[in-house]
Design a protein that fits this description.
It contains six helices and seven strands; from the N terminus they run ααββαββαβααββ. By secondary structure, it is of the alpha/beta class. It has one domain: 3-Layer(aba) Sandwich (Rossmann fold), CATH 3.40.50. One of its GO terms (molecular function) is S-adenosylmethionine-dependent methyltransferase activity. This is Methyltransferase domain-containing protein. One of its GO terms (biological process) is methylation.
Length: 211
Amino acid sequence: MAFDPLFPADAFRRTDETPDAQFYQQPRFVTHIDEGAIAAVTQLYREYFPANGTLLDLMSSWVSHLPPEVPYRRVVGLGMNEQELRANPRLASYVVQDLNQEPQLPFEENEFDGAAICVSVDYLTRPVEVLRDLARVLRPEAPVVITFSNRCFPTKAVAAWHALDDRGHMALVKQYLLAAGSWHPIELLDRSPQPRRSDPLYAVIGRVQKP
């Protein structure tokens, strides 16, 4: 496992270090946050992703939470389970890839107008490498919208995630983007539904800056 020198060597260790392909072999046709938090994710996508744009749903599954009324030119998914990806009605195409094994994305430079990472960033063991290459495949000024809650598969979330609270998670993801370079400005948002009867929802959003 490769570690980024800006973070402690044990920051990305996990309780379960068995291959992720084995863990995600069986499809999970469930949502990992509740309806209120999902609505908050969808609203962020309305605000940040351009209509008729080309989008990358990174660490995707059977649902992308994109606003149903907004047309996109093309949505590409990259995830771990082919059955889930095949069932996603918003995807024009998909790639099955384990980013913890291969953080380089199989796409061209400047291919996408925006990217989403929904309730999955806590599982990345090489987040800086992934976000660095994500900047390559996004067009200048394109956003990445990274959302998360307080739920996870605990044995697969990295040690750094377990060590922090919700605010700490936002600060950690911001540090990932800063370490990757090419991301500015970076916004930290609490979009938790009010009153708080739903799952909390947090977002870190960066925009690509290229020379």
